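Page 42, continued from yesterday. The earlier attempt failed because a stray header line got pasted into the input along with the sequence. Redoing it now with the clean sequence only.
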Amino acid sequence: MGVSIAIDGPAGAGKSTIARLVARKLNFDYIDTGAMYRTMGLYLDRNQISLSDEAAVKTACEQAEIGVTYENGEQQMWLDGENVNDQIRNEKVAGLASACGKLMPVREKLVDFQQKLALSRNIVMDGRDICTVVLPRADVKVYLTASVEERAKRRFLEYQKKGMACTFEEVKKEVEERDYNDMHRAISPLCRAEDAVLVDTSDMSIEEAAEAIMKLLPEK
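This time it went through. Structure tokens are written below.
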């Protein structure tokens, strides 16, 4: 049995960045669950399977061979024997990942895959339902958050760097709507597990947040 650190929280809280840092400091594997949904989205797209065709989606989940390897600490996604890391990093696949992540056959397939990964290695995994659904018995469970204003500020600065035209108020509204949708979705809504430790990163650096999480390990 490996040691597992599960991190949930809303968009913009810094989950992926902080989870990657914790994994690197502890020499654990960082499990990028989003990449798995992107890979499944890529499979559905390649095979021209409509997300509204439940029977076809279920069959696709039975047939798609998804795998993970690690090279220099970086997760590599494999689909039917092909490394697809470079092919899943675009907006089209991101949209498909978000859409297919709402489908029960896809979630069942990937949750099972993620749980099996956690059995065989020391891992840090982040998402929206890791503490509540995927790894309910994780050694460390964290609900990582930050104020709406801080998360909107981070996203606004990110958009500015990319040259995207928007106002802070527009970005704040986007963050609030994302929170509502994540917390009210029908399957595995975002919520804080009863035994998850709250870590608010509003006034923390990435390093400080990572240290706060690692300090929870000895207690477990």
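Notes: Residues 29 and 71 are 10 Å apart (CA to CA).
Reminder to self: strip header lines before submitting.
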